[in-house]
Design a protein that fits this description.
The complex is a heterodimer of chains A (about 525) and B (about 325). By secondary structure, chain A is α+β, with helices and mostly antiparallel strands. Helix content of chain A is about 35%, strand content about 20%. In chain A, strands 11, 12, 13, 14, 15, 16 and 19 form a seven-stranded antiparallel sheet that branches. In chain A, strands 3, 4, 5, 6, 7 and 8 form a six-stranded mixed sheet that branches. In chain A, helix 2 (about 15-30) crosses helix 10 (about 155-165) and helix 3 crosses helix 12 (about 185-195). In chain B, about 25% of the residues lie in helices and about 25% in strands. In chain B, the strands form three sheets. Chain B has a seven-stranded mixed sheet with strand order 7-8-9-10-11-18-19, covered by helices on one side. Chain B has a six-stranded mixed sheet with strand order 1-2-3-4-5-6, covered by helices on one side. Chain B has a six-stranded parallel sheet with strand order 14-13-15-12-16-17. Classes of the chains: A alpha+beta (about 525), B alpha/beta (about 325). Bound molecules: zinc ion (2 copies).
């Protein structure tokens, strides 16, 4: 645990990507396989299940320190992070005591795992012992494991690069192996980094090729006719893998989805052995894609009923062919892959498999006109792919672009504020915004990104001075400030007070020029955004 | 009913019977000053009284010929029916708690204070009282200061690491008090020269004149133009961070010494490479101990972050309230 805690502390302080890479590589080289497996798991964003709730932890902290709820609440509000509050409020271990030598694996598997579902008494007594044993530095990370709130800002890409460096592996090979999730065990880790091991799991997908966003009127450095244009579908990016007579459906987040979509598994039955399609999983309305919220109804259910299948039909909209008859087609130019995909899918072997149509690319003007029409196609804009490009993994190449629609916007009033996480743990950065409804304010959306640091600090200062009421870490503020929020789309949400919800809301700018009377009204928003509602 | 001994006005903490104001922020005739930080000692008062060791600092801030009168620690002065005396607060050189007595009623205004040892000033002296007006800058239980000797060791080790990499080590620190405390603390490890930003240099001279032992220092203005500070430790006020002045020290590692560095969010947001937890204010245990030592049955808290402290004291059966003052807003920490 100590080496892992030291790594996390050092990563947090590291200022450059190079330095982070160095730290991660050194850790993977030195750590025993069982620890490295867990570290990889945690660094790539998998979170251990929490073993105590916030209120439980606060109660035990109160008992351990003799501090009242009011004092601890105020302190938590000041720090903004419970794990850190716990680490700092508890007295440091007596001078000269060393942190226990327990390995990360032993701590997680032998000490923490058995606590899940254990009695409150058992969990409390183990945690109090741990708190007393570890100094403040490791104690913070220990608490993050306990609360299930560990976030490390290094990202999967960097972690895998470091792992590749530590074991002298080709990054492409490692990425490909990594696509099949593994349990955090020493065996799985050793297989992952074994330079000799070559056989992949039958279901292994390929690392996804990602697109660069086009911003500020920029266009790809090619003539429009050298670019394959398609709609940018608003679904879940997936690979459909057909091998050994079996089918797997992988999301980009490396989740296996085939059990949730039996109609797609059935549709894949007639694909040739050794086929991998790249495409978009979509909810389907009568004759076109349905809204994303519909699809999420299907995604949320692990076991799917016939009724749900009928209520929310789905389609797999294929746009690339990565493997055919067991041959890896990724090095071939897109144009050739696309031709083979069209041959494979015409006629489509099953109605649930569709081919993403090519759009008219005769000029950038014609494409711009299509883009402007994307919302009517239930698309988010256009995808542009260089026809000569190989299928490369990640986002670092220059051959795929997403040309998204300009976002919708709304002027809304700041109502509640909550502290952020990590670097912004004691700064108010998470906001709830409201719009007018018959002279009253109704909450419409939560947004936390989009303001720069100095603006956030200024806003934080204002919030602290204009708090009307507090609910735990949340502050209700005097309605006075107006912000322009951007969002991708809106959909009906009957259980919300506003009756609608926004997709990907973010703060565009602080409208200091507007008074609260100038903010938008729900009625006009509904008319503008939910024309069918 | 008698008037309260001290009362908060729009100018400061005023004593009607003695006709003076403690640490006023607007013009008054008679000002009693706890210490020389900018939020406590302001220009434009008719006459100033402060603890004797603090006089040179006040003169530097207010002007060489300003009407400042030094009073030795513990010596009593009479203002009408009220007796006033200054007692060491352990915050910076010349910092004092102000004890105000009328009959057998005693109030103490702590000003800024700390309980940790500091070689640059007289140690805090507990003063029994009925009402304690205390600062509450770091009034949360997460603030429990590490041993200052350990922090000095960390600062020295960081400097040596920078020196080994041939980089400058630029340590940002409040110019008055903290900087000199570090210079004195480093003396336990080295006698190497430390370089000072101009804002720190003048104040450091005052400390030397007062007999405080520190490592040798030279102002950065005397550094040869070709010298980029590699391997050197340079002290500067936080306002110099990111300035043209700081650009000279290319490739520098930056550090910040402050009690706020205890919190991870603040540490990361401020963007210094290193954060050293070193404060000239009382931590949570220091505040509680001081209230207890004073025996006060009533506590008034200034400096803003008072909610946890008030709740805690009320839980102990002590009458506790916040005083809305502008202290801590312009000050260092
Ligand atoms: Zn001060
Ligand atoms: Zn102050």
């Amino acid at each position: 645990m100590n080496a892992f805690a030291a790594l996390l502390t050092a990563l947090e302080r590291a200022r450059s990507t190079g330095r982070k890479l160095e730290l991660l590589t050194a850790y993977f080289k030195a750590a025993p396989a069982g620890d490295a497996a867990w570290a990889l798991h945690l660094l790539t964003g998998r979170r251990p299940q929490r073993i105590a709730t916030g209120p439980e932890l606060r109660r035990w902290l109160g008992e351990a320190t003799g501090l009242s709820d009011t004092v601890l609440e105020a302190t938590y509000a000041h720090v903004g992070d419970l794990a850190e509050t716990l680490a700092l409020v508890l007295p440091p271990p007596r001078a000269g005591t060393q942190a226990p030598e327990t390995s990360l694996q032993a701590l997680l598997e032998n000490t923490l795992a058995p606590l899940r579902g254990a009695s409150a008494e058992a969990r409390k007594s183990t945690l109090l012992t741990l708190w007393q044993a570890y100094p403040q530095g490791p104690r913070l990370w220990l608490n993050k494991l306990i609360t299930g709130g560990l976030r490390v800002g290094v990202g999967e890409g960097l972690t895998l690069r470091a792992l590749g460096q530590a074991f002298g592996l080709d990054p492409a090979v490692l990425q490909h192996r990594w696509m099949t999730p593994q349990a955090p065990t020493a065996e799985a880790f050793n297989a992952l980094v074994d330079p000799e091991q070559a056989t992949l799991h039958w279901a292994a997908p390929y690392p996804f090729c990602l697109a660069q966003p086009l911003r500020d009127g920029a266009l790809p450095p090619h003539p429009s006719t050298a670019v394959l244009a398609e709609w940018k579908w608003d679904g879940v990016r997936c690979q459909l893998v057909r091998r050994e007579g079996k089918t797997a459906l992988w999301s980009r987040g490396r989740d296996r989805l085939e059990d949730r979509f039996p109609e797609l598994t059935a549709a894949a039955d007639d694909l040739p052995e050794g086929t991998v399609l790249d495409g978009e999983l979509l909810a389907w309305a009568e004759n076109g894609p349905g809204p994303f919220v519909e699809l999420s109804r299907r995604l949320q259910r692990k076991r799917v009923t016939a009724a749900l299948q009928r209520a929310v039909p789905v389609r797999f909209m294929a746009y690339d062919l990565l493997e055919l008859h067991g041959e890896d087609l990724r090095p071939q130019p897109l144009e050739q892959r696309r031709q083979r995909l069209e041959t494979l899918l015409s006629p489509a072997p099953a109605p649930a498999l569709l081919l993403s149509p090519r759009l008219d690319n005769r000029s950038w003007e014609s494409l711009a006109a299509l883009r402007a029409d994307a919302r009517r196609q239930a698309a988010e804009g256009l995808m542009l792919k260089h026809e000569a490009s190989a299928y490369e993994s990640g986002r670092r190449h220059q051959s795929w672009w997403k040309w998204k629609l300009d976002p919708e916007t709304v002027d809304a009033i700041l109502l509640y504020a909550q502290p952020g996480h990590g670097r912004r743990a004691n700064l108010y950065t998470d906001f709830t915004f409201a719009v007018w409804d018959q002279g009253a304010l109704v909450p419409l959306a939560k947004a936390y990104s989009g303001l720069d640091e100095p603006t956030l600090e200024r806003l934080d200062h204002w919030i602290r001075r204009n708090t009307k009421e507090r609910f735990g870490p949340v502050r209700a503020v005097t309605p006075a400030l107006v912000f322009e929020l951007a969002f991708d789309s809106a959909h009906p949400a009957p259980r919300r007070k506003a009756g609608m919800a926004l997709r990907f809301p973010r703060i565009h700018r602080w409208r200091e020029d507007l008074a609260i009377e100038d903010a938008d009204a729900l009625e006009t928003l509904r008319a503008r955004l939910l024309p069918h509602g | 009913m008698t008037t309260p001994l001290l009362t908060l006005t729009d100018r400061g903490l005023h004593c009607p019977d003695g006709d003076f104001t403690i640490d006023p922020w607007r013009k008054v005739d008679r000002a009693i000053i706890t210490h020389g930080h900018g939020d406590h000692a302001r220009n434009g008062m008719g006459h100033y009284w402060t603890a004797a060791p603090g006089v040179p600092i006040l003169r530097k801030r207010l002007g060489q010929y300003s009407p400042v009168e030094g009073v030795p620690y513990g010596e009593r002065r009479t203002f009408g029916a009220v007796t006033v005396s200054f007692h060491p607060a352990g915050h910076i050189l010349g910092s004092a708690q102000v004890r105000v007595q009328r009959g057998d009623e005693v109030w103490v205004v702590t000003g800024d204070f700390k309980r940790e040892a500091d070689p640059t000033c007289a140690p805090f002296e507990p003063v029994p009282c009925d009402v304690l007006v205390t600062e509450a800058t770091f009034a949360y239980p997460i603030y429990q200061w590490p041993n200052p000797d350990t922090v000095m060791e960390e600062i020295y080790a960081w400097w040596q690491r920078c020196a080994a990499e041939d980089r400058p080590a630029v340590l940002y620190t409040y110019a008055l008090g903290k900087a000199q405390r570090i210079l004195a603390g480093l003396h336990a490890f080295t006698n190497e020269t430390v370089w000072l930003h101009g804002a720190i240099d003048g104040l450091t001279r005052i400390y030397r004149d007062a007999g405080v032992t520190m490592v040798p220092t030279v102002p950065v203005s005397e550094m040869p133009r070709s010298d980029r500070g590699a391997g050197r430790l340079i002290l500067a006020p936080p306002s110099a961070a990111g300035s043209k002045w700081a650009k000279r020290f290319r490739g520098a590692s930056t550090g910040f010494a402050s009690g706020w560095m205890q919190v991870r969010g603040t540490r990361r947001r401020k963007g210094y490479d290193e954060g050293f937890v070193l404060s000239d204010h009382a931590d949570w245990p220091g505040l509680l101990r001081t209230v207890e030592d004073s025996g006060a049955q009533r506590v008034l808290a200034t400096h803003g972050h008072t909610d946890a402290l008030l709740a805690h004291l009320q839980g102990l059966g002590i009458e506790a309230q916040a005083l809305a003052t502008p202290y801590g807003e312009t000050e260092a920490e």
